[in-house]
Amino acid sequence: MSSACMMFRPNKGYTFTEVVLSLTILTIVTAFISPVFPLIKGMSSYTEEFAVEQFTHVLYEEVSQSKTYTFNRDVLVITDKDDRTIEISKNGSTIKRTVNGKGYEILLENVKNLSYIEKDFTVSVEVGLTNEETFEEVVHLPHKK
Predict the structure, then answer these.
(1) In the chain, which ranges are continuous DSSP H helix?
(2) Tens-place pLDDT, residues 91-101
(3) Which of 2, 72, 109, 118 has the fewest Cβ atoms nearer than 10 Å?
(4) Which among 97, 95, 129 has a CA at the least distance from the CA of 110?
(5) What is the C-alpha separation between 116 and 125, in angstroms, rounded?
(6) What is the pTM of this model?
(7) CA distance to 30, 39, 130, per residue, from 120 (Å)
């Protein structure tokens, strides 16, 4: 009868075997996951590259919907269909979009340098970030100027 009572007795703790088994499983899982951590650390450059691609996409959209555009070394001046003057330029460590000289929208942060190099029907946009990474994207321009 005492063995029947022992079966229904509530557990008051874990057995040594359960603890050792749990630690073994935890060790094995950690051994398989640890090589993933450097990949997670490298995700920041991926997100920065994606941010630069988004920035160049905004440039393409602005230029393709404009009446006129002018590239200087580090400034893009656009006149849109509503005769607004849009300027995209580096200001401090950010790239800002200003409309008619009022207000601004931050397009990209942590920027060390920005340059536009215009060719026939493309412009090469080079963005250097404060972490010393440099990205170069080519934007295809519409035929108007």
Answers:
(1) 2-7, 16-33, 37-41, 43-64
(2) 899 999 999 98
(3) 2
(4) 129
(5) 5
(6) 0.65
(7) 54, 39, 30
